[in-house]
Design a protein that fits this description.
The protein contains 17 helices and 9 strands. It is of the alpha+beta class and 415 residues long. The chain has a 6-stranded mixed β-barrel, surrounded by 4 helices. Helix 2 (21-63) runs antiparallel to helix 11 and helix 2 (21-63) runs antiparallel to helix 16. The chain is elongated, with a radius of gyration of 32 Å.
Length: 415
């Protein structure tokens, strides 16, 4: 495609002489501009993917892919349904759950609103995200009447494993003086960490029996959580499930679809960020155009001499195309390497900067996560590289075409 002469001339033009140092500076600025644009795009897209995947995994890891509830909270006879679901090979875990709201209090006098979930210890330890900081020996205390509380809630209430927590519910017993709040004290069997502040700061888990007694549910469940082996098959299984649960005066819904507005907002934000950051590469491509146009003007006499000794217009165009292509390739390669390295170590870099400058770059309260997630998608990196190279190559077409329009006689007339 390119002859040795064309490659040699293009390479010599890339390495400007002392008298052409300004053109060399423009070339390096073009390379740096493309490098920063590609690196920034890879880093931001990886962080956005990490946010989406981390939130999805942590939320669904606590709520299940599909939930089943009864209509209007009516009476439930779900024993047969639970047995049928547990036998289904497509389901990984079935979690019968009792849920209610209450107020948690400690000896320090601090109160906090909480959500209480009641489930068996075997189901709790099987949850994908809640079992990482709970030991099997804690399950014995849980079964005997203890509770598991989130790590942020424990810090807020100033309580710890082995201590006690008081739970207050406004739905208490009726007396001649009105409804009296229900107040119960429970030992803390363990402290869990999901890594998402909404759960770590507001959730308390107790065994099913204690939850039934506390909320006076008469054995009625709040909902069933289903965890599928293949999350990608949620849509198909949900269609099958609708016919099954209708026999039990219940309905099913996919948690992700019910809260689709939340994930759609993240997706829209991600797409907008991609478009905005792509403008950096486009601006760098315009820098390539301006640099090549100045190079063509500077090399007018050289081009005229090359044309005089027999170099074709096609070869001249290929020489200047090669220069722009090399700028694009070098800038894209350096940007890809830099972007991948930072994307794979973005949370370590965050921690290092925060410790070095004693500042807070990532607020856990705002983003609901305990770290800066990053998920490097290979297909996205390839797409960014292809887009960067395509824009760089397109940017070389006009200057290269302009060089072919130089007439040797006109160019050498005043030399």
């Amino acid at each position: 495609m390119f002859t040795r002469t064309e490659l040699k001339i293009a390479f010599r033009y890339m390495l400007a002489r002392r008298s052409e140092r300004f053109i060399s500076v423009i070339t390096w600025f073009s390379i740096i501009g493309i490098m920063l644009g590609v690196a920034t795009l890879i880093i931001v897209m990886s962080v956005m993917n990490g946010f989406h995947d981390d939130l999805m995994n942590k939320i669904l890891g606590m709520n299940g892919d599909i939930n089943i509830q009864s209509y209007a909270g009516g009476p439930q006879k779900w024993q047969g349904l639970i047995k049928t679901l547990k036998k289904d090979h497509r389901i990984k875990l079935v979690v019968p759950t009792v849920e209610g709201q209450a107020m948690a209090s400690s000896k320090s006098g601090i109160n906090s609103g909480v959500i209480i979930r009641g489930m068996d210890s075997a189901n709790f330890i099987a949850l994908p995200n809640a079992n990482k900081t709970i030991h099997k020996k804690d399950l014995a205390s849980f079964d005997k009447g203890g509770v598991f509380i989130g790590s942020d809630l424990a810090r807020k209430l100033r309580v710890y494993k082995g201590g006690n927590i008081t739970i207050i519910s406004p739905k208490g017993s009726f007396t001649p003086f009105g409804t009296m709040p229900k107040v119960r004290s429970y030992p803390i069997a363990g402290v869990f960490t999901v890594g998402m502040i909404q759960y770590d700061s507001a959730y308390i888990f107790m065994n099913t029996k204690n939850a039934h007694n506390y909320f006076n549910t008469n054995g009625r469940l709040t909902f069933l959580s289903l965890f599928l082996k293949d999350r990608n098959s949620t849509d198909d299984y949900s269609k099958y499930l609708k016919g099954l649960v209708s026999k039990y005066t219940a309905y099913s819904y996919e948690w992700a679809k019910k809260n689709s507005a939340f994930f759609s907002a993240i997706k829209v934000e991600r797409n907008v960020m991609f478009i905005i950051l792509m403008l950096i590469i486009i601006v760098a491509s315009f820098n390539v155009i301006s640099g090549l146009i100045m190079l063509v003007r500077d090399k007018t006499a050289d081009v005229a001499i090359l044309r005089t000794i027999g170099i074709s217009r096609r070869s001249v165009m290929k020489i200047f195309f090669l220069i722009g292509a090399m700028i694009g390739i070098v800038g894209t390669a350096l940007g890809t390497i830099l972007g991948v390295i930072i994307a794979l170590n973005v949370d370590r870099i965050r921690i290092f900067i925060e410790n070095s400058f004693h500042t807070k770059l990532f607020s856990e309260d705002v983003y609901s996560l305990h770290g800066l997630p990053s998920n490097l998608n290979v297909s996205e990196v390839v797409f960014i590289v292809v887009m960067s190279l395509a824009l760089s190559f397109l940017a070389t077409i006009y200057p290269a075409w302009k060089a072919t329009k130089l007439e040797p006689v006109e160019a050498l007339r005043y030399e």
